[in-house]
């Protein structure tokens, strides 16, 4: 992948560049502030292009949400540009703003998660392919307090608290009570097999309900990472 990396901490930026290089990727630009990020992406897009942007949320010049704002501006200029936003802290407002218009090709990950090289590599692949990745701790805070169970089959990108809100507005109103129940379990990180065991229903029944959920939420088969996007609809972001 051709990657542009934006991080104001020189130590972390260099460390990430080394990790990405070891993965076989090419970091075509390393920048330390939001204006430089915008300039680097614009320059790359006039040449060979960029496969994915990795940016910190808080960067100069104001050290607030400059990186996030730059990411949103880049998505306006280049719809579908894959971007992974890194954050030191859990700020659900940032997640809601990032995913407000489109979740395709976006990731919101806590910096602590980058230490797991295999998981970070999977995050980059998922986002570059048009998928969506949300840090499980961020999902937990979006839904409320609690300890999030994460299923291995979920890829470690979704989790939620044990007590979930019963939202039935908008597209969710199209779901039957059983489908909404299954979507709640999906938001908690349950795999199809775990849903089958939890609700004492067959694998075929679970698959049918999950398919119905995707259809009713307007997520066709060619939509990347439908499971995550269905949960995003449940979270209303």
**For this structure, what is the CATH class of the largest domain?**
Alpha Beta
Q: Mind telling me the C-alpha Rg?
A: 18 Å
The CATH level-2 architecture of the largest domain is identified as 3-Layer(aba) Sandwich
Number of domains: 2
Order of helices and strands: EHEHEHEHEHEHHHHH
Low-confidence stretches: 145-168
The SS-based structural class is: alpha/beta
Biggest sheet, in brief? 6 strands, parallel
Number of strands: 6
The largest sheet has its strands arranged as 2-1-3-4-5-6
Mean pLDDT: 82
Structure annotation, total helices: 10
CATH topology of the largest domain: Rossmann fold
Separation, N- and C-terminal Cα atoms: 28 Å
The percent of residues in helical segments reads 40-55%
Shape: elongated
Range of strand content: 5-15%
What would you give as the CATH superfamily of the largest domain? Response regulator
């Amino acid at each position: 992948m051709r990657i542009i990396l934006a991080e104001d901490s020189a130590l972390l930026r260099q460390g990430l560049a080394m990790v990405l290089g070891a993965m076989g990727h090419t970091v075509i630009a390393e920048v330390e502030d939001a204006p430089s990020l915008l300039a680097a992406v614009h320059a790359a897009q006039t040449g060979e292009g960029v496969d994915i942007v990795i940016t910190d949320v808080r960067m100069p010049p104001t050290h607030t949400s400059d990186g996030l704002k730059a990411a949103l501006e880049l998505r306006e200029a280049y719809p579908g540009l894959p971007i992974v936003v890194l954050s030191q802290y859990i700020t659900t407002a940032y997640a809601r703003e990032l995913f407000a218009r489109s979740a395709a090709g976006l990731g919101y990950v806590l910096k602590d998660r980058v230490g797991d090289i295999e998981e970070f590599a999977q995050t980059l692949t998922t986002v570059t392919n048009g998928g969506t990745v949300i840090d499980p701790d961020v999902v937990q805070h979006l839904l409320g307090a609690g300890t999030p169970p994460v299923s291995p089959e979920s890829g470690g990108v979704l989790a939620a608290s044990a007590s979930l809100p019963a939202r039935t507005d908008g597209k969710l109103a199209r779901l039957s009570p059983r489908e909404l129940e299954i979507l709640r379990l999906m938001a908690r990180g349950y795999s199809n097999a775990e849903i089958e065991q939890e609700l004492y229903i067959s694998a075929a029944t679970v698959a049918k309900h999950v398919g119905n959920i995707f259809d009713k939420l307007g997520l066709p088969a060619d939509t990347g990472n439908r499971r995550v996007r269905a949960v995003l609809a449940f979270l209303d972001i």
